[in-house]
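Interim report to the steering committee. The following record documents the input for 50S ribosomal protein L7/L12 (189 residues).
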Amino acid sequence: MDSLLIPALILVLVAVGVLLAARAWSHRGERSRPAAPPPAPDSGELARASAAKLNQEQHRRIYALIAQGQAMAAIKVYLEATGEGLRASRDAVAALAAHPQPFRAPEAVPEPVPDEDDTPQRFSYRYRAIASKGDVTREVSSNMLNDEIYGRIRTLAKSGDTEAAAMALTRHSDISMKQAREFIALLGD
């Protein structure tokens, strides 16, 4: 029995050494392994966002290159069009290929309609408005009047809202309220 004891002890020591070496090897591999990359954004959402950065011509060129199997050329066009990095351009073109997007023109932001209460615009010419009744004639000359504004003032005067018409006239000219009321009185009839 003594003859088997020494080889058994050697076998146990070798097995323990192999287990310890395997455990140390696995722990060292975990420490050197980089952290998991952050989850990639949804490629459908990436495709929509990528397509929104392109104008119609760029959109057409990229999809033509994708259809021809020229992914590198499509990435180059996308990179030049958006100025994003190479990796971002590669991911965007891959998403566009996987999830084709129709071209959507950017929605135009409507220009604010100028309110009549806003500061009047000055024009490069002087506009003359003349109103007369019998022997009485009044003239208003201003570079803040034009046909459209004068038309609104006349419409207000003819509809009976003389005070609003006089206010609009003083806002778009350099006359006093009294002079504006006299001018509007000639228009109202």
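Residues 98 and 126 are 61 Å apart (CA to CA). The committee is asked to note this result when reviewing the revised timeline.
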